[in-house]
Fold each of these.
Amino acid sequence: MKSFIPLLALLFFASCFGSKSAVQESPAAAPPFVTWDSQMHELGTVKKGEKREMQYEFTNTSGENIQIDIVDACECTTIEFPRGVIAPGEKGVIQAVFDSSEKEESETITIRIIYTNTTADGFPRIEKLEYHFDLEV
């Protein structure tokens, strides 16, 4: 029994450091779908009733044409986004205007972007942008 344990340990280590071909055959990591200049904006202190504008700039790094289908955020945020196809390497801008009129407290707001392009599994491709503000009443 005592000689069995070292043999078992040897087999375990051999399997851990076995063939390198599995690592070499794995596909290269796909480039990011979209590269953002920034996905988060800090607005700092915002007075109730004040409006703030911000831009989220991006580059299509997917290697394929992409198209934004839906951009969704809370009612306090008005959004403009590029319509139509964005070719590989092209840049785009999502513009957002935050209206603090109806807010009662500081918050982080999420903006969701849904693309016409799907993932390899056929699911919608979704990304998030955010901004944060500290409300001054």
Note: The beta strands are 34-36, 40-47, 51-60, 66-72, 77-80, 85-86, 91-99, 107-118, 124-136.
Amino acid sequence: MSTDITVPQLPESVSDATVASWTKKKGDSVKRDEVLVELETDKVVLEVPAPADGVLEEILHDEGATVTADTVLGRVGEGAAGGGGGDTGGDAKADTEEKEADDTAGETAGGSADAKAGPAARKLIAEHGLDPAAIEGTGKDGRILKEDVQRHIEAGPAAKPAEAPKEAAPQQPAQSAQPASAPSADETAKQAGVAVSQGDRPEKRVPMTRLRARIAERLVQATQQTAMLTTFNEVNMKPVMDLRAKYKDQFEKAHDTKLGFMSFFVTAATEALKRFPDINASIDGSDVVYHGYCDVGIAVSSDRGLVVPILRDAETMSMADIEKQIRDFGGRAQAGKIGIEEMTGGTFTITNGGVFGSLVSTPIINMPQSAILGMHKIQERPVAENGEVVIRPMMYLALSYDHRIVDGKDSVQFLVAIKELLEDPARLILDV
């Protein structure tokens, strides 16, 4: 008797998904709730577990296939790998081979395969005979992601032109992560989904991920369908930095999380949104929808692209709760574990290009929201204070807004309100 492996119900805003990878091959033993398939949607990666113990009997949709909810991806049959005719020796051999493959993919200093590499990453590591210890993991707690493995492959011999077919393969240096029997550059490149040109000017072509394609679509849509304009201001970050330096140790001890800058900006933004409701509104057809709550999206960078999880009812959250939630979002974004429902909605967005060194930029609105706040690098600059030139840690702020709904006066005053609250952070506590 076989059990179907089906695509789970997709969120309302997602119509289909792409089969990103299978973690097992046909005939392999599987255990109930073990991840068998990774599905990529426009925003998140969904893991499909095995419905029962047994053998992966059939794969109906290979990697790259587009599937919808309730589609049967494959089937798990009863028994063990290599079964039939009671060949227990075959079963033992298959189990041993499976364990060896898992060990090869997952042995890293200080962690097991499950702790240090995701299913897709383990499969790719095993296929290429790589040493996991040589791969830098960018996921939470150093977890190795599929993208990390692909990056490692592309940075190695695959980036170089292949030798002539009749030439002997050069001896691999001792420190190389590739074994002596590693595939040729062309073969490695093909397995990684990369086309490599011959000669002195190599090129590579990789398909755009669904997330990247969706980001591109949304950005073009925002520039074409909104009357987007950006206003700028600057804020003296010394008061916030002094307050943070004074209380950061006590804050961490009391709340078990570090005190960063984002909680100050989120709190200041929610206060300003209360004063200027147009900036917290959105256009729906010919209507303007005013939101009586502040669902603030926090732009988070990941290997797969930019994602924007939402702080629900941010106006009611303490600074400690804001910091904890943002750090949780950051870790799960790198591991691809943020659910699509956590990125749906939002009335306002904050993005921080300053963490990458950006001094000033014009962020693009996250539709259907009417505005987005851009934070930038804190840089010491000479400024005039009380008739004297002093050096202060300054940050440029940018507010991009939809001029169809937000007037220039309100956008400027909104940004000034944030500036004033940050330059006198006691006002955040006193609500004045």
Note: Confidence is low (pLDDT under 50) at residues 83-115, 158-192.
Amino acid sequence: MFTMNTSDTPLTYHRLRPNAPVGLLAKACLELHPRGVTCARCMEACPVEVLFLTEEGMELNEGCLGCGRCMGACPTGAIAVHGFALAPTPDSTHEALTLDCWKVPRDLSPSGAVRVPCLGGLRVSQLLALRYVGGSRRLVLVDRGWCGQCAAGGNDSHPAQAALSATCDWLEEIGAPASHCPTLEKQLLPVSSQRQTISDNTETGDTVSRRNFTSRLAHEVAITAGKVAGFRLGDGGTGKLLRAVNNQAPLRAIERERRLLMLERLAARYGGSLPQSFFPTVIIGPECRDHRRCTGLCPTGALKSYENLHGGGVSFDSAVCVACGQCERICPEHAVQLSTWNVGATSPNETIVLTRHAHRACIDCGETFTTGGYETRCPTCRKSWEMAHVGVDTLFRNIPEDRKRHNTRTNKTNNK
């Protein structure tokens, strides 16, 4: 298992296969969550196609490279891979904070470089943390020109390009100077220098390196880096992790928490505000009938039901929304609209009320309920009423017309 210190309580990542470097946190996985969100980004990102999502859960076959591409693609931080525990020091002796991959022999990496299995496995939160740790130094990802020949390599673009672009966009929004944007720089080496496998026996293993810092800033940096990236590898697993069935607790989006943490710290440093593009927007139109399926099936709990003396409705917390689109898909009236850009929001990091509906008394049971339309029955009675009508329709759907007329005449005769 992996233990990650993203908060005061360590998180446990269960290894998917004995001796494999990949661990999974089921409660953070959209696919394994019982609220039914479809996400296959990790499987699609695996360059050797050994990671599978099945009806039973997630499965890892033999042949994992340990590249971390699945980890970099996961939107919630449900996957951790050995070798990506980053804890660099705020060393000012180097002009740049450099990242290099394990396929480069250590003696060919720049002095003081942060080495990871594959640059394509880096999360956005890690790049933000490295930007914070690096202070005013340039943050450089080294392109050796090998990705096209590597089994874990990229296609038309470098495998780290998507994470780099997202990081730079947010840094620009919070007011960081252009020189602080992470860059991808070509420092070509002959292909003959490339290691055949993604491994580095000289790395520090699973334990995050902790150094003694004297300054207050350095201590804060060490804590931040540990929260964002630190973990260690433990016991092996069975190769499978089954889907949860009864656990309806909200999914914890670890990666989103890390990104928000780093954006808050960086915004304070640069004197800017949190980027609006980080916070999705949800709008619920007048078609809403207050069924609240969106709140019941929202995986992260970003959409919640509320009740007060005057009525009830739906509230929204954009800070925990992962923009999965579940709310849009399951609304029976198609009243929900999701946007990944928080346009014009003054306080996007706050819970807002989306709908307000008055209380009514159910004509069948008398219980008080809220409604967004002209319903006269509470959700329970309405469901029973709908099921009864469906049953009647099903009963008579396939009866021939002459038989229906016969039944009608018989019923009239019996009623006389």
Note: The chain is about 25% helix and 20% strand.
